[in-house]
Design a protein that fits this description.
Number of domains: 1
Radius of gyration: 17 Å
Structural class: alpha+beta
Helix content: 10-25%
Number of helices: 2
Low-confidence stretches: 9-14
CATH class: Mainly Beta
Length: 101
């Protein structure tokens, strides 16, 4: 029996401009970033959206918990705490803070 080659089932490569993306947990304390996307299922993405964590929103990492504890972030003027697993699935593009608060 002969099998035909399937067309269009090639593995998708990530876009080249995503090389500068970091997980939210990789930001330093006080560093800001813009959310690019969340990796996860529909439930997780919806829960993050309900908290205001949507693509294009600026976030600031306020504090990292010790011993793999939660990370505290500030988004839209509100402080939130995310577990390390959830925060590691949020991809951000770090931004340089040109003006000092």
């Amino acid at each position: 029996m002969m099998f035909r080659k399937r067309r269009g089932l090639q593995r998708r490569e990530p876009p080249k401009n995503e090389g500068a993306l970091k997980a939210l947990t990789e930001l330093a304390e006080g560093e800001k970033g813009v959310i690019v996307k969340a990796l996860g299922g529909f439930g997780l993405v919806r829960r993050l959206a309900d908290m205001g964590l949507t693509p294009g929103v600026e976030v600031k990492l306020v504090r990292k918990g010790s011993f793999s504890g939660p990370v505290e972030i500030e988004v839209r003027g509100v402080a939130l705490a995310l577990g390390l697993g959830v925060a590691s699935k949020v991809l951000v593009k770090p931004i340089k803070d040109e003006h000092h608060d």
